[in-house]
Amino acid sequence: MYKALHQTHLISVVLFLLIYLIKTIFLLINKNEGLAKFTKIVKIPEMIISLLFFCTGIYMLTQIPEIKSLMIIKIVTVVFSIPIAIIGFKKKIKVLAVLSLLMIIGAYGMAEMSKKQRPKALRGFSESNVNGKEIYNAACIECHGADGNKEIMGADNLNVSTMDFSLRIETIKNGAGEMNGFKGILTDEQINAAAVYSETLKK
Ligand code: HEC
Predict the structure, then answer these.
(1) Are 43 and 55 in contact (CB under 8 A)?
(2) Domain C-terminal end among 86, 114, 142
(3) Predicted confidence (pLDDT) at residue 36 exceeds the cutoff of 90
């Protein structure tokens, strides 16, 4: 469910940006007639895409266990870019149209950066602590749950995971899908300890 909606969100973002980019180009090269025609053609698809984008975005927000500061900045940026775009296209103010496009692109850069932000539970967590359970409880529990079967944000059920140890280390280090990598956040020893602990959750 989460994965499918996340995919839908990404696809709607790409389509949305594409429509937006074409409109901005029309505006920048002073093809106002072309812009009017294009706007008319994409009106309904654009409404559907925007609706999908918002609904999936809101659903995903309700699923994120910890909303990081950069994520909040991202959402505020996206929300503010909308009136700027509307005014920009209505009044044909090129600077505003470009600004709103840059804001949306920047927002996605921020979302990517927020993945590298240290989770709250790990702030002040000692680097010398290599107790697998404690690391798991601080770093993994929010998505995988204490027993490994919570499956938040499309997380794999660790009770039934058949992933081998080296791939497990790789996944924890570099992340996969909505799981952020822990390289640079946990030490190699801590990643190792978390991987060992995660295997004990197999049933
Ligand atoms: C933000 C949520 C989140 C956090 C935090 C998180 N995971 Fe994950 N985890 C996921 C998701 C989502 C997947 C599925 C990734 C994919 O789409 O392939 C996953 C997959 C995995 C897998 C692969 C299982 C398999 O069979 O494919 C392992 C192992 C794993 N996580 C262990 C951990 C460990 C250990 C930690 C803590 C150090 C952790 N995870 C923290 C969300 C999270």
Answers:
(1) no
(2) 114
(3) yes
Q: Report whether 47 contacts 69 (CB < 8 A).
A: no
Q: With pLDDT > 70 as the criterion, what percentage of the chain qualifies?
A: 100
Same domain, 95 and 144: no
CATH number where 140 lies? 1.10.760.10
Q: What is the CA radius of gyration of the chain?
A: 21
Distance 180 CA to ligand 1 centre (A): 8
* Ligand 1 nearest-atom number relative to CA 153: 12
Q: Which amino acid is at 155?
A: A
Name the residue with the closest Cα to ligand 1, atom 29. Answer: 168
Of 87, 88, 187, give the one whose Cα is nearest residue 130: 187
Expressed in angstroms and rounded, the spacing between residue 167 Cα and the centre of ligand 1 is: 12
Residues 50 and 129 placed together within one structural domain of the fold:
no
To test ligand 1's pocket by mutation, which of 68, 140, 162, 186 has the most ligand atoms within 8 angstroms of CB?
140
What tens digit of pLDDT does each residue of 41-80 get? 999 999 999 999 999 999 988 888 888 888 889 999 999 9
Q: Inform me whether the pLDDT recorded for 158 exceeds 90.
A: yes
142 and 182 share one domain: yes
Q: How many domains does the chain have?
A: 2
Ligand 1 contact, 134 CB (< 6 A): no
What is the Å distance from ligand 1's center to 116 Cα? 15
Backbone angles phi, psi at 175, to 5 degrees: 80, 170
Domain that holds residue 158: 120-200
- State pLDDT tens for residues 107-150: 888 888 888 788 888 888 999 999 999 999 999 999 999 999 99
Asked if 101 and 21 sit in the same domain, the reply is yes
